[in-house]
Amino acid sequence: MKNAKNIYKPAYAQIDNKTPKICRISGVEILPSKIAWEKYNWTKKYFQKKPKQGYFIWVKKNISSYFSTCVSIAAKNTKQNLQNLLVIEKNLKVNLQGICNSQRKNLSGQHKAQGKIILKENSALKYEHIQSWDKSDIVESDYQFILEKNSKLDYSYKNFQSPKKLKINTRINTFEKASANLNIIINSIQSDININDILILKEKNSSGIIKLRLVGKENSRISAHSQVRAEAESKGHLDCQGLLVSSEKFHSELACRRGRIVEKSIIKLIPELVCQNKKAQITHEASIGKISEEELNYLRMRGLTEKQAIDLIVNGFLEA
Question: Which of 69, 73, 125, 245 has the CA that lies 20 to 30 A from 150?
Fold first, then answer.
């Protein structure tokens, strides 16, 4: 029950550009970023300039359950520009959920968030970042992670309702014996999406995996450039997979039956490996596929509608 309460009562909640609501959590200091800038001089090395919006979260002690943040757009033409900072002290384990969304259709909101997440030595963070937007919204997300010695990161970005335009930049720096697991999951419908992610294995025995699962539907355009860079003896893997739901042949058949224009989507994957140390081991796999007629017909023969069959296949792909 504690976890359920945390979902509906986030530790930090902001709607539009209104003063955020902040809950007290033992062992955690939560402030608006602009107040943290004034209170703690050391935060200035992480913020590019004095922030006007966003949150500062400083985890000083272990907490018993996960906590959450929530940033929403509720009014038309709202523009958000957040600068967030999360710092986790040594030897701590933290579970965090971040929610960003628009609360209604046709708000034409603009959401921009820049963040830095610092994991001190031997700390661990499991971070689930969930976003849900309307077709009129424009969204930009830019996060940097710094993983100190022996720290562990498990970061999942999930977007099942994509905006009009979405730009995601993710940069992870791993130091000695640190490990990172980055998952980006996007179900795109009539969206223009640009993804740039980079995992830098900076010191000995660091490791990491980047995993992308991208679905393109109904005139979506997805471009994903992913890089694993090994600067020291380390191990890294890059796994990029795209699924085109609107295959040309499939939609041509639909167009004939329904009398509408054929819809097409485009997915472009650019996997890149950069090795600067002869003892490093970095690998990658990348593929783009489509829903086969055989698989679709198999599910329809068992009583599913066309839409139900497609949704089942897509959900299985995104969870793989």
Answer: 69
